[in-house]
Design goal:
- There is one protein chain.
- By secondary structure, the protein is an alpha+beta fold.
- The chain has one domain.
- About 25% of the residues lie in helices and about 40% in strands.
- The protein is built from two helices and seven strands; from the N terminus they run E-E-E-E-E-E-H-H-E.
- Strands 1-2-3-4-5-6-7 form a seven-stranded mixed β-sheet.
- Strand 2 and strand 3 form a beta hairpin.
- The protein starts with a strand and ends with a strand.
């Protein structure tokens, strides 16, 4: 379920994924969707640019993080996560995935 929360004068939606410490934060004002695991931001999906920004290798922190990262990619980015090996190849070959 999405909850509307005020952060400053911005409005964002926060959705908890299957695990209590995995969140999706939708910033509708800036067309960005962030996946957060515990206290760490994993990635940001830029809706307008259709570009995924990865925060280093946080997506690869644990099996649980990778599992929920795969759900995020599928549900919000329209990208299928098949395996870590395939995703690493995708990072190298895509101009729509940027590691920051």
């Amino acid at each position: 379920m999405l909850d509307l929360k005020g952060i400053g004068n911005k409005m964002v939606y926060v959705e908890q994924l299957e695990h209590k410490n995995q969140y999706v934060i939708v910033d509708a004002e800036n067309d960005k969707i962030t996946f957060q695991s515990y206290d760490s931001q994993v990635c940001v999906w830029d809706i307008k640019e259709k570009t995924l920004f990865l925060y280093g290798k946080v997506w690869d922190y644990s099996n649980t993080t990778r599992k929920h990262f795969a759900l995020f990619l599928s549900k919000y980015c329209g990208t299928e996560y098949k395996s870590k090996k395939d995703f690493l190849k995708l990072i190298q070959s895509s101009d729509k995935i940027k590691v920051i």
